[in-house]
């Protein structure tokens, strides 16, 4: 089996991990201690993880990739439930729009990076 690990470079690893766990129910599956920094791995599904790295650690150790920002789109079956959770918690969230035959919206993480959500059938 192959697992895709998507690396996100963030200002606050713990706060961003809590955000992803709270809103998308990602589960922490690993944690790495680099002495002056940590990295947290969150399972998206059995074959995909988000691995959060402190951006200062990346700037120090791999400066050539520190400014890379992915554009991620999550297919969500509980689309309305997720949107409602964002609204109930006074989170910034884009309006729901129809795009390509599916409802979508976007939201920022704790560092202000935007991600998209698309409704999918269960």
TrEMBL record:
Organism for this UniProt entry: Trichococcus shcherbakoviae subsp. psychrophilus
Annotated InterPro entries: Glyas_Bleomycin-R_OHBP_Dase, Glyas_Fos-R_dOase_dom, VOC_core
PROSITE patterns: VOC
Stated name of the protein: VOC family protein
Highest taxon, organism lineage: Bacteria
Domain VOC, chain residue ranges per copy: 2-120
């Amino acid at each position: 089996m192959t697992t895709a690990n998507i690396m996100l470079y963030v200002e606050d690893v713990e706060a961003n991990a809590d955000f992803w766990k709270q809103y998308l129910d990602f589960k922490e599956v690993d944690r790495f201690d680099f002495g002056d920094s940590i990295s947290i791995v969150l399972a998206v599904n059995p074959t995909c993880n988000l691995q959060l790295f402190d951006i200062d650690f990346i700037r120090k150790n791999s400066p050539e990739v520190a400014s890379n920002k992915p554009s991620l789109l999550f297919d969500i079956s509980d689309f309305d439930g997720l949107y409602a959770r964002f609204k109930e918690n006074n989170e910034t969230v884009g309006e729901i729009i129809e795009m390509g035959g599916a409802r979508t919206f976007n939201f920022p993480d704790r560092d202000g990076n935007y991600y998209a959500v698309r409704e999918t059938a269960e």
